[in-house]
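Molecular record:
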Amino acid sequence: MDKPTTKNSLNFKSNQFPISEKLYLSIENAVNQTTPKELPNALTINFRDTTYSAENGGFHPVEIMICRDSDNLWEISYITDFAYSGGPYPELGIELDFNFKHNTFQQMSLATTLLNTRDVIEFYQIWENNFLSYIAIGAFDQVKVSM
């Protein structure tokens, strides 16, 4: 008889940035599929389309780091979206970085700006909606959680 698995319920700290409940649930689902019952105080979740390449395109790799505070509440530290760029020998680099811990946003080749501006919030909501759609269609064939 199989042992019942215990799921980790991740209680996220409320955030003034408009992170959707659906994203929090997607993070919790990824953690529960790949992580043991005992959780450390920080986790990095990597979503990958293993067919993504500079030549053929595909879905950009995304990395999300979450940390637990002293009240046992989780918060997203950062969300980073990677893409290939560069001349004849493209390299995988950071295309977008939403850094909640430092309240900054960085887009490839542009200056860092504050995260909580209207333009960044609107851009984030579009990005998040697309990311959640990619999860829903199974675009990421590799999801890894690192401690």
